[in-house]
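Crash report, auto-generated. Payload:
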Amino acid sequence: MKLSGAQIVIECLNAQKVETIFGFPGGAVIPLYDALYDAKYPMKHYRTCHEQGAVHAADGYARTTGKVGVCIVTSGPGATNTITGIATAYMDSVPLVIITGQVGRPLLGRDSFQEVDITAMTLTITKHCEMVKTASQIESTLMRAFEIARSGRPGPVLIDIPKDIMIQVAEYRGEVMKPNSVHQELDHEAIQIAIDALKNAKNPVILAGGGVGLASASNVLKEFAARSNIPVVNTLMGSGAFPQSHHLSYGLIGMHGSVAANSCLSNSDVILAIGARFSDRVVGASEKFCSGAKIIQVDIDINEVGKNKEIMYPIVGDLGKVLSIFSEKLDGYRWESRSDAGKKCDVDHKAKQMLSAIRQTFGEDAIVVTEVGQHQMWTAQYYGFEKTRKFITSGGLGTMGFGLGAAIGSQIGNPEQTVVHIAGDGSFKMNSNELGTVSKYNIPIKTFVINNNALGMVRQWQRMFCESRFSETDGDDSVDFVKLAEAYGIAGYRVKSQEELEAVLKKIKNNKSPVVVDCIIDHDENVYPIIPPGKGITEMVTAFETLKREVSL
Amino acid sequence: MERTLRAYIENEPEVMMRVTALLKRKGYSMRKILMEADELKSGAWLNITLADEGPTFTVAMNTVGKVVDVHTVEEI
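Recovered output after restart:
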């Protein structure tokens, strides 16, 4: 069947069963949007207010549904506006296909209007990127893009299509691409050696990372941990990989991890790390990190194994399959229960109480999307995640402004579920323009701005490590978030106390419309525990103190 | 000491750019880079000589091997 390049793009999206596209039109994608005009149900395009919001929305959609997120933007600034979103998805292994328009081939390389070399710019933040050179290549390139994005360790793929190619006519073959059948052989000998090491452990621990959710290995993990009675700690991205209410869960580890979790990890002699990469926020000072423990690291990506920490027992392969072998071969092995000391959290402050009330109102099945900063850490510490794909956050890149776009995508991908967006005032200001998208499509996101009128996390560091020299981190009360919400036709509330919040929560609980709640807290409410830079995970600081600048911040 | 890896890749400059950018980001010092189209011009040979600094040579081979349009990697 002969079709224009633009029509072929739409046919490919249909073939991939794409129902949701996020994007923003522009000159170089006019032919593509013209073809999209004829797209039939269930394919639907959502126009965000800014291209960054579109990529974050596609990202949130992908993280919560497990499908590939799709985004269409124009050339030049349209393409460059996606870069932060692409890098965010790349760092957290999220499958996306980003289609960028490009100037026509005769104009390439001439500094033409809205021309940038977007494939060169995104080389190191995509799993793959390429420019299509003829209309006849569009079908195979796009179909392959989806396969690359979702296979193995997922990631974003960018396909750049020059405008003249979108108009060019080519044959659409409608070929069905077989899923990548490359089978990764497991190294059974390496697995057996690791299992033997675990058998000899006195105090083993499981470290669950974000890979558990990506590999849908949460149930196998749950079964293995329960059967062997091995405690589980989780990284930020591993929140929900193991139910945090389970008696074997010790919670979040790392820079803002709990005392119980960090102690449990550092008192272990064998660490079984599943889909975790030992990032600097987890490890602290690398040389001090669990120096007496033997580490087994299981990951789908060979490049992650031993990247940040020397590993005695590396295993490359599908996490679910490897865990099943562990479970089978350790049948009958059951370790002594570990102490519960330190598990009960005595910390209490307004933000914690507010999060607790939000959790109580919306329950464990709500999808919780955060921005980046103190509110993100409080959410990870106190919300209590029981399942994967429920805590959506920018863990790797730490992108302020991620949350609202991601919440939009999460809600569109999961219309029956409640989506709670927890933001800080600093992050929310970055991409609050997406309230326009929320309003336009009446997306019933519940946004809670934990408002301390400061860039709280950086301010906390300045308070602790820079002798309270608050350089550019105190706010100026310049934005009235209630009026901002109302300007977009969204209900806005301001709460200053727990009672006021509970009254608002009661009112909005079953509301099918979006809402913004401005929750006022004090700017000196900080995130504890904290591991100061250069310190090991046992050197936690649990309350405010002024510390010397011993190392570079 | 220097070691050289040889990869068979798609004959596109983007592939070489991606490979070298990844190695650079991981802290390798590249002493020599040579890309030549093969006789059929469908693919190309990319030889990269690395100084004995940064992460190990095996990590470099694994890193290059994971790039989508890299078909084979070996040490020469």
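Post-recovery validation: Helices of chain B lie at 13-25, 57-65.
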